Amino acid sequence: MSDTETKTVLVVGATGFLGPALVEEFAVAGFRVICGVRSPDKAARQCGLPADQCIIIDCNEDLDVGTWLRRLRECAPDVVVNNVGIANCFGSQSLENVNVRAPLALFEAVRLYRTEKMRSGPPREYLPVVQISTTGVGWPDYERFAYPLTKMMMEEALATMDELDWIIVRPNVIFEPGRGHLLLERIASFPLVFYIGRAYIQPIHCRELAVGVVRLVQQIPASRHLVFTAAGPEALTWKEIFQQSKQALNKHWGIFLPAPLKLAQLFTMLVQRLPEGILRRLGIFAKMDPETMVMMTRGSEADNRQWLRYTGVRSLRLFESYDAYGQGPEAYGEFIRRLREEHLTYGKEITKEA
Asked: Would the pTM of this model clear 0.85, i.e. be above it?
């Protein structure tokens, strides 16, 4: 496929927190984006795409390879990104269905679809799949927690699919000013801030992650099986995260107090009982439960050098991100635009090396 030909990417899990950023960055890069979502109306709100660029999926129910194969034939993607993943169960949802069985059926369908296309015409360029995982799979005791356990189950299953060209991306805690589950700009306005745990994490900016995924798809040649740890440039405790966001937003005064885990879990559960509309206005896109709070207190430091080397993206510090956000929408928009345009020199050498 020539560089001038428009490629199509299927993003499964296009709503929520990371999904809209992936959709936007693929679109900015010139891809035609198909959104796999449970609610097209929700996708239209969050991603701003017309209905004909959405297909209805439900990873709690869509466990049949044939179902996914029919969808692939209809939308004819050149790239498939699986961004679906839940950290906890609500209602009839099953972590194993959503995090393992449905993605596995999707990737098996990709394998069959690719074989079909190769038999029916000239050899097609590789059809890569991207699996969004979590750095939690690297915990020594990850099996204690259902979320990283099911993500590792999916990774292990994907690793056996030698015929596919796959990329696994393991992001650390993801943040972006103005949206998401951290709400740091709101916490920064509080004179009294409670934090939990003293472990270090390396939060990664949502846009850095999305831009990096697009560049991986654009730059990595065929016959690649790669795993990337996508982490931010600095290891911080939750207290330091709150302190930096306050300082960046010129909220210099505040008292920081450690909070017992049980109290934090209770508060979170009460917040989650608010109506979905209110949660969305608050910028909360992810459901949390007591186990999720425990996972957030776990340390999750990582080496991000391979991620930076292959993507060529500039790693964004939390302070500079909130500093740009605090200067207003135009300044923050320019901040993101520069991220898209900047490309570290060593990132450009990957294709040559490969």
From this structure: yes
From CA 182, how far away is CA 184, in angstroms rounded?
5
CA 190 to chain centre: 28
What would the two tokens of residue 139 be?
């915990």
Paired tokens of 133 = 């995982």
pLDDT digits (tens, 9 = 90+) for 30-53: 999 999 988 877 777 777 777 678
Amino acid occupying residue 180 = G
Q: Based on the number of CB atoms within 10 Å of its own CB, is 31 exposed (0-12), middle (13-18) or buried (19 or more)?
A: buried
Assess whether 156 and 188 both reside in one domain: no
Q: Is residue 307 one of the residues assigned to a domain?
A: no
Say which amino acid occupies 176: E
- The mean predicted confidence, pLDDT, of the chain is 85
Write out the residue range of the structural domain in which residue 287 sits.
Answer: 173-204+231-302+317-354
Task: Return the beta strands (E) in the chain as ranges.
Answer: 8-12, 32-37, 54-56, 79-82, 129-132, 166-171, 174-175, 192-195, 204-205, 225-230, 255-258
Per DSSP, what are the bridge partners of residue 169? Answer: 132, 228
